[in-house]
Amino acid sequence: MAGRAEGELIAGRGIRRAFGDHVVLSDVDITIARGEVVALLGGSGSGKSTLLRVLAGLDAAATGEIRRAGRGAVVFQEHRLLPWKRVAANVGLGLPSAQRHRVAAALAEVGLADRDRAWPAELSGGQAQRVAFARALVREPDLLLLDEPFGALDALTRMRMQALFRRLRDEHGFAALFVTHDVDEALLLADRILVLDRGVIGEAPADRRLLLTRLGVPVLEEAHR
Amino acid sequence: MTGRHARRAITPVAVLVLWEAASRAGAIAEEKLPAPSTVLATGWRLARSGDLGSHLADSLTRAALGLLIGGLLGLLAGSVAGLLRLGDDLVDPPVQMARMLPHLALVPLVIVWVGIDESLKVTLVALGAFFPVYLNTYAGIRDVDERLVEAARSCGLSALDRVRHVVLPGSLPSLFLGLRLAIAAAWLSLVVGEQVAAQSGIGFMMMEAREFSQIDVVVLGLFVYGLLGLASDLILRVAERRALAWRVGLKAS
Fold this sequence. Notes:
B: mainly alpha
């Protein structure tokens, strides 16, 4: 976006998080620059979501140094809309009243302008997740943190949401860190791919074949494609 | 739907009709159980004389006052225990122990403490209302989805705002359940409290009538208790439907 200085939105050094004796993040360094989309890959239980929560400032028990700049917003795997608030109130949750007027525009951007009076329970899974996106967007974030945001959706909805994500990103130019276990999703959406493995983070190649090798997937499987 | 409603009314109406017929035929002794029509006539007579109204007003005042005191204390203690870890550690153990006692067993002790006048009945109702409200407030707060609280935090809500926008509405269904149980406990406490020592109230009316063998008045008292329970349940149901409108959407989908 015009007028914004270049620079790091988030810079974490030596992030460590353990649950009892089980060390999930042992020594993680991560930086995300303005405007870039970074995918965080890793198997289940690798600590991807833990890292995202730490970066979002939702985990007080983590140690290490994290510097943040700009505004952040989070989209979770589940929509996490408050069932007792109508869609518009969910989007505007915690927003200063001077910014409430942006709610309608945010809903329109995700194609749900006419559902502002609906209860979350009346929405489909894809619609609810779009509302969750609107709730993040309305805060005009510099950095969007997404925890497997399309993970709970069916294949078709998922592809539509990926397209929506790309369109929103082209329009707003926010930076994003998204956690995923889907290699193709990472390749499709990200400028840069990180792999979290055994508590440490590593840069990964943005080439499908090399990436799969890096993740330890037999390349033999590739030949069948 | 109306057909089904009509069908559900068949048995109660049939029971009333049979009861009336059996009484008139002499199959049920008048001094054991008077006919519904007799009870109704007695009710009309006492309502016109103003006796029924004043007894009912006294009972309702005691119930309302006791519910208010016990309910507020239960809400307060339950919130402290549900929201704060320190509160949980300090408040919950003694309350959990105390709730094992049937509160009506405290009648002798309460008489010694507060005497046998109005404060006895109000204290009993308050004691009866406290525990269900406390337990359901506590459970309701504990059952609020932690992930929603986290989402609210990521939206920049302060701790107080999280309580207001997430915890309170999230525990509201449980609060209503607590209130419903508290009201039931309140009537129960009144039945006992007003029969122990009272100069007014539905319970007193029934006890006095029994001594004079006015069984029709005793049965009338039962009817009144039943109607009171029904009315409070109905009011609560309407309030619940309004406050929990978002759940209607849940059912519709």
